[in-house]
Amino acid sequence: MKPKVTMTAWNQNDDYVVTAVNNHLLKVWNSRTGQLLHDLVGHADEVFVLETHPFDSRIMLSAGHDGNIFIWDITKGTKTKHYFNMIEGQGHGAVFDCKFSPDGQHFACTDSHGHLLIFGFGCSKPYEKIPDQMFFHTDYRPLIRDSNNYVLDEQTQQAPHLMPPPFLVDVDGNPHPTKYQRLVPGRENCADEHLIPQLGYVATSDGEVVEQVIGQQTVDQEEQNLEPSVLDGMIRQLQLEQDQRNGADQESASGDPQGGEGTPRRG
């Protein structure tokens, strides 16, 4: 196998350069002389993550598709800590990205199964408040392109960046309680009744009917069967008036090009 470099990183003070090679080795080089100092052995698959510590020039983090995460002392060429990302019932999860916190006391990783892994000092109790599975209900919605080749959400025919803030759901599409919905930017100050998503049934390409979050409703509208809000009616009225104006403009543009000198038409 011809060796190929998959990732390169400089340490915090630029004294060392670490390269990840596709033979699963990490190599530590003197950045000034180009001398090879250490071969770091431990990974069993390709490495695409090399992260230097924000202020400790000795520390480098590596992670790869083998599910291994290593903390290395690159000055000595030794491993300091090791974690293997084993997922119960599914084998290991390849680690795709890692970042240190600014204070260097924590680092976070993401894997191929959609997990966010947080490592560091202290108690994990604050993180236990957050559900294990968090997705936006729009994450896997199909997209289409309009006549101008702009991307639109297939269901609402809206540009994705103009759509309302999405709802948080679990892996099966079930909405989380309202206290979690406020974690979504744009929903921080919403009242509880505006954080209850509306569920509908959508047919997939395979013909299977699945339950999906399709919009937003309020408790009052649901319980009292009220008409949609006044704001919705105003938006529809403005759209109707705009359509009528566009139609009138098209009619005037399609009139007699000679300035109306022909036979007058009966009204």
What can you see in these coordinates?
It contains three helices and 19 strands. By secondary structure, it is mainly beta. It folds into two domains: 5-120, YVTN repeat-like/Quinoprotein amine dehydrogenase (Methylamine Dehydrogenase, Chain H, 7 Propeller), CATH 2.130.10.10; 135-213, no CATH class. The strands form seven sheets. The protein has a four-stranded antiparallel β-sheet, with no helix packed on it. The model is unreliable at 217-229 and 257-267 (pLDDT under 50). It holds the Pfam family WD40. Residues 257-267 have a biased composition (Gly residues). One of its GO terms (cellular component) is nucleus.
Number of E-state strands = 19
Give the CATH class of the largest domain. Mainly Beta
Q: Which consecutive residue ranges, at least 5 long each, have pLDDT under 50? A: 217-229, 257-267
Shape: elongated
